[in-house]
Design goal:
It is built from 14 helices and 13 strands. It has three domains: 6-67, no CATH class; 76-84 and 350-439, Alpha-Beta Complex (Aspartate Aminotransferase, domain 1); 88-343, Aspartate Aminotransferase, domain 2, CATH 3.40.640.10. It is α/β, with parallel strands linked by helices and 448 residues long. 38% of the residues lie in helices and 16% in strands. It has a seven-stranded mixed beta sheet with strand order 2-8-7-6-5-3-4, with helices on both faces. The chain has a four-stranded mixed beta sheet with strand order 1-12-13-11, covered by helices on one side. A two-stranded antiparallel ribbon has the order 9-10.
């Protein structure tokens, strides 16, 4: 056996241990044990096709070879996933610290006060930015959080709505595609009828129990949804808003214009994209919704000495309470990533966050003006970090990929999303690539 192989380094049973255990249970080999345990109808008799064992070093070298096949492009895809800068102190002391990344659910509050405080900070800044009274300690991701808001509204229907079998749920056409898919999947078992449409033109009535909007929407537009939420409220329809957490540093909070629930992702607050996940979602709502909110809430209590102490104040997973009263049975938290997001907010503070958001918005506005000046018809009138326009997408995609640039392609629309990692040099490269595609102009420069 190779000394540095996984098998020899693994802390587990050895040949002597196996022999003793087999003797104790009265079988001659592991194969015999399996034959006597697994029914023949499901037993696989063929040998598993497993390559010869390699050392950890050889394995990592092979992974590096595979990774080297990737091409590093400038990315402006957006759609809920953004480049972010993880402060080194957070990367070193939280993300790469086993004291944080191996921690499980803080059932024993007396030994988890630091983690509980970080999660309380998470809840606090989410409530502040969304304008809501209450926030949980994170959910799985943005799409499932959006679906959870739909389920919460469904279970909160009034007696009259239940009696009249009110089962329609409005979904804006302008939300991210991955969120649409999850909402559709989660609605099917409860026979919730999903109605897609434009929030500006949809005719709401008593057949709806809820609706969901995106703010800013998938194309980057920023709408004032006050009229929509007002009409919904008059019809006893609850409204959920999927919000970009960084944009809320500058924009009016959804709570200020009537949202009942606000959900979203905190990925762009210092959490690496990680090839699509995992990321910590947030779920904020009104105080009156607290008995229906999925996930768990960290609360401030008091210890036996009369000192402030933190604990899990509310838990709604079926493993914690009666299944009939549980609001969720999925893995309802991303504690490590929620901690990272809360540390990012503490690290930068209100002024730092505002500066980051303003720089993102400024770069987006500068790019928008240059594109308009060079013949592009930008669809969205208002923007935070995303610009959208119609173009020959096949030709545009081929052109930009030759310049090692990725942008978003949503239906028949191209979209560009700026984030805190985007430099002016990168933006100038993008701008020149787009202008050359449009009119073959020699070169342009953004005004910063």
């Amino acid at each position: 056996m190779i000394h540095n192989s996984f098998e020899s380094r693994h802390i587990g049973v050895n040949e002597k241990n196996i022999e003793q255990m087999l003797k104790a249970i009265g079988v001659g080999s592991v194969d015999e044990l399996i034959q006597e345990t697994i029914p023949n109808s499901i037993l696989k008799n063929e040998a598993l096709k497993i390559d010869k064992a390699v050392s950890e070093q050889d394995y990592l070298s092979n992974l590096k070879k595979i990774a080297s096949k990737n091409s590093n492009f400038d990315n402006y895809i957006g759609q809920g996933y953004y480049g972010t800068i993880t402060p080194s102190v957070i990367k070193r002391n939280v993300l790469c610290n086993p004291g944080w990344y191996t921690a499980y659910t803080p059932y024993q509050a007396e030994i988890a006060q630091g983690r509980l405080e970080a999660l309380l900070n998470f809840q606090t800044f989410i409530s502040d930015l969304t304008g809501m009274e209450l926030a949980n300690a994170s959910l799985l991701d943005e799409s499932t959080a959006a679906a959870e808001s739909m389920l919460m509204f469904y279970h909160m229907r009034s007696r009259a709505q239940i009696k009249n079998n009110v089962n329609k749920f409005f979904v804006s056409d302008h939300i991210f595609l991955q969120t649409k898919d999850v909402i559709i999947a989660r609605a099917e078992p409860l026979e919730i009828e999903i109605i897609f449409g434009d929030p500006a033109t949809i005719k709401l009535n008593e057949e709806y129990f809820g609706g969901i909007l995106q703010y800013p929407d998938a194309y980057g537009e920023i709408y004032d949804y006050s009229d929509f939420t007002s009409k919904a409220k008059n019809l006893d329809i609850q409204v959920s808003v999927i919000a970009d957490i960084m944009s809320l540093v500058l924009l009016k909070s959804p709570g200020s214009w009537g949202a009942d629930v606000v959900v979203g992702s905190t990925q762009r607050l210092g959490v690496p994209m990680g090839y699509g996940g995992p990321h910590a979602a947030f779920f904020a709502c009104k105080e009156s919704h607290k008995r229906f909110i999925p996930g768990r809430i960290i609360g401030v209590s008091m210890d036996v000495h009369g000192n402030p102490a933190l604990r899990m104040a509310l838990q709604t997973r079926e493993q914690h309470i009666k299944r009939g009263k549980a609001t969720s049975n999925i893995c309802t938290a991303q504690a490590l990533l929620a901690v990272m997001a809360s540390m990012y907010v503490v690290y930068h503070g209100p002024k730092g966050l505002k500066s980051i958001a303003e720089i993102i918005q400024s770069k987006t506005a500068s790019l928008k003006q240059l594109l308009i000046d060079n013949g592009f018809n930008i669809i969205n009138e208002n923007q935070f970090d995303t610009l959208s326009f119609r173009e020959d997408l096949v030709s545009l995609k081929n052109h930009l990929e030759k310049n090692k640039i990725n942008i978003g392609y949503l239906n028949d629309i191209a979209s560009i999303s700026i984030d805190e990692t985007t430099t002016w040099d990168q933006l100038n490269l993008l701008a020149n690539s787009l202008v050359k595609f449009k009119n073959s102009k020699s070169s342009v420069a953004l005004k910063n």
